[in-house]
Write a structure and sequence with these properties.
22 strands; alpha+beta; 27 helices; VWFA domain-containing protein; 729 residues; vWFA_dom_sf; disordered C terminus; seven-stranded mixed beta sheet; Papain-like_cys_pep_sf
């Protein structure tokens, strides 16, 4: 392995312990963990493929834990190492017997060919051969345990002789029985002949049974059984491998299991490769051990910038609390994503969480507690909202999902785990599509920054309204009437609604503005609605009032500085404003909500980039900016400005379609995270990467079944963020 540290190390831990039996085998009448085990392995493959697209030089490891230690297995094993040992001859399906027979012939013990084929399954023979290949020092032990050919032949002769004696005894008994019955000479002769034949048949069966028992008790067979039980002990170290190697091994494992399953259809006595692996599953759940081994891998690659661990489990550890180990991983800058695989197919909505649900069991809560937190606007979470996932309004989510079917597991891995968290694409940032400086440093507005001027020269309402109108219009591709600047929109507002003491009615101004610039609409929302709009990249117009002393506290907290502070200013807290919220209003202000976190809301202001945090400010929640005095209540008001796709003109629709087609083709190389996302074909129901669909937004062709369909809102192209308005469907 290269001494240079890779840029990315990604691990995947798969829980196959006894507590996962129901989840892995849900819906299987024959209790075979095939389909769901395949789904879990597909999840690991998807993760590796996604990481390969991000970084072809990444290292990936895949571990399984919860193996049956009572039967000789280690608690944790490196799946890729085991797969590599089993599948070194990928083109030689069903050749485990041949491989071991070939090795026996090379060691001059080919006389055991019959026993290899009869006593070992093909995969057992493959395991023994692979183990001997890894441990050449045990080949002699294996050969010495096999009786010499002459000894085997002597044993056969002896058993046949015993069979003849047994057969003769049976024949004699048969003849005696006939004679006692007083039969004549002809019948007695026939009975004697029959006794010879019957005695011979019985003798052969007895001889075969003796031979079979002798083989079962032989040291060679005991050694083969021990190797089959303990071979995974060779793979107790989790080994990070080049991502290309991991993909190759997992594909081979998947393909081999499919070939085995296909060949098994006509012969129910044969086992598949996954059946073979299943015999090692369903032990205790050493989650701490698995996490500890993973931490060792990450500590060996401290220079890796991206460090991710994905855990598929039910959270029920049997070797102690896993949360301290999860904390150690987080302190080592490892982002943990957890997947709870449920057995109940009806209880897992497509949803991300900020807090645990009341209905969760202890295992779910443990997995949730281990998961890393990311901002709700971090790519690809806004994409998930576009394709139907529920996202909490807190502005932060845990990298955790509960899935209850193999299809849901596929979807979660393709939508969530396939994209690099923390890499927000600038293309997709609506706020980034306007000039912050032109808004923050507008000379026309800077005179409003003195709180004492709020009641006398309140023009900030026009500037903030113009900004959100401008941003909403930018989301319409190819708008027929173009894109008026913030300055143009503001001037029109001020001409129609000149400033006056006490300011202007926001509803009145927005009603006029959305009439001037179709197809814009607006609606008043609460804080939760405002957060949801921001999570969908729609900045929200916000108005509030403060008392005179409240403005003083506000101004002092975010006061202008000669140079920006080294650390961002903290959010203004409720406690700081509590003494001032019951007083009379001393003027209102209008700003733009741009960001939300669990413990704060962040607004864009227009008082210069030396004010606040480079022109923005944060508060604990909306109540910080409320008044509830004797002169009346002044709540914080949020206004979501949006448009409906159905109200676009024909020309705008055409431009929109053309733009999305262009984005699909031209942006794939620059922003590959968009096209890594998968959509489900309505015909064949396969999950297919967006990049693989052919056609246009109006008619796409699935590369799997070649059927055409029209993408539905919230299904395919909404994942491109071009639909940043609100769909009317």
């Amino acid at each position: 392995m290269s001494s240079t540290s890779p840029a990315a190390v990604v691990g995947c831990l798969l829980d196959v312990s006894d507590s996962m039996r129901e989840a892995l085998e849900a819906g299987r009448s024959d209790e075979r963990a095939i389909e769901r085990l395949r789904a879990v392995l597909r999840a690991a493959l998807k993760l590796a493929q996604a990481e390969q697209r991000h970084d072809p030089n990444a290292l990936v490891f895949v571990g399984v834990f919860g193996l049956d230690t009572n039967n000789g297995c280690p608690p944790v094993a490196d799946l890729c190492g085991a797969a590599d040992a089993l599948l070194r001859n990928p083109g030689n399906h069903g050749s485990g017997h041949d491989l071991l027979i070939k090795r026996a012939s090379e060691e001059n013990v080919s006389h055991i060919t019959k026993y290899i084929r009869e006593k070992l399954t093909d995969d057992e023979a493959r395991i023994v051969d692979a183990h001997l290949g890894r441990h050449p020092e045990r080949v002699k032990e294996f050969v010495d345990a096999i009786p010499p050919e002459q000894t085997v032949e002597n044993a056969k002769t002896a058993s046949r002789g015993f069979g003849v004696i047994t057969g003769a005894a049976v024949g004699a008994a048969l003849a005696a029985g006939v004679a006692t019955g007083g039969a004549g000479p002809v019948l007695l002769g026939a009975a004697s002949a029959a006794s010879a034949i019957g005695g011979g048949a019985v003798g052969n069966k007895v001889a075969d049974k003796i031979e079979d028992n002798a083989v079962e008790r032989s040291e060679a067979m005991h050694l083969a059984r021990r190797i089959c039980a303990e071979w995974l002990q060779d793979f107790t170290t989790l080994v990070p491998r080049p991502v290309d190697d991991v993909i190759r091994l997992l594909k081979q494992l998947q393909k081999r299991s499919e070939v085995d399953e296909s060949s098994k259809n006509g012969n129910t006595g044969d086992s598949t490769l996954l059946d073979t692996l299943r015999r090692y599953m369903y032990g205790c759940t050493p989650m701490r051990d698995a996490l500890s081994r993973s931490l060792m891998v990450f500590n060996e690659h401290l220079g890796a910038e991206h460090r991710v661990l994905v855990l598929v489990s039910d959270g029920l550890s049997t070797d102690g609390d896993p949360l301290p180990l999860a904390l150690d991983l987080q302190q080592a800058k490892v982002s943990i994503a957890t997947v709870y695989l449920a057995s109940n197919k009806t209880e897992a909505p497509r949803r991300l969480y900020y807090q645990p649900a009341d209905s969760w069991d202890p295992g779910q809560r443990i997995l949730f507690g281990m998961a890393a937190r990311v901002a709700g606007v971090t790519h690809p979470i806004p994409v998930l909202t576009s394709v139907g996932w529920e996202v909490p309004s807190a502005g932060e989510v845990a990298l955790h999902a509960t899935v209850s079917s193999s299809a849901a597991l596929d979807e979660f891995c393709s939508l969530l785990l396939s994209a690099r968290f923390g890499s927000a694409d600038a293309l997709l940032d609506v706020i980034g599509r306007i000039s912050h400086d032109s808004y923050i440093n507008d000379e026309h507005i800077l005179r409003c920054k003195d709180p004492s001027d709020q009641g006398q020269s309140a023009t900030c309402y026009a500037h903030a309204t113009a900004a959100v109108v401008h941003m909403a219009l930018l989301r319409i591709v190819g708008r027929e009437d173009g894109y008026p600047s913030i300055e143009e929109v503001r001037k029109r507002i001020e001409d129609e609604f000149p400033s006056k003491p006490g300011g202007r009615s926001t509803v009145e101004v927005l009603t006029a503005a959305t009439t001037w610039y179709p197809p814009l609409r607006f609606r008043m929302v609460d804080e939760d609605g405002a957060r949801q709009a921001v999570l969908r990249r729609r900045p929200v117009l916000t108005t509030f009032h403060l008392s005179k002393s409240g403005w003083d506290v506000f101004a002092e907290h975010f006061r202008e500085r000669s140079s920006p502070p080294e650390e961002p200013l903290p959010a203004l807290r409720r406690a700081q404003m509590a003494a001032h919220r019951s007083l009379h209003s001393d003027g209102g202000h209008a700003v733009v909500l741009t960001t939300c976190n669990p413990d704060s809301l962040t607004f864009l202001n227009s008082w210069g980039n030396k004010w606040g945090n480079k022109g923005s400010f944060s508060v604990e929640d909306h109540t910080v900016l409320e008044l509830d005095g004797t002169s009346g209540k002044y709540p914080v008001n949020f206004y979501d400005v949006y448009w409906l796709e159905s109200e676009l003109t024909v020309t705008e629709r055409q431009a929109y379609n053309a733009k999305v087609d262009e984005e699909l083709r031209c942006r794939a190389a620059q922003y590959p995270s968009i096209l890594e996302l998968e959509a489900r074909c309505p015909h064949c129901h396969d999950n297919v990467p967006l990049a693989n669909f052919r056609g246009s937004i109006r008619q796409v062709q699935c590369p799997q079944c070649n059927q055409y369909s029209t993408p539905q809102p919230g299904h395919l192209m909404k994942a491109l963020y071009a639909r940043e308005g609100i769909s009317d469907v």
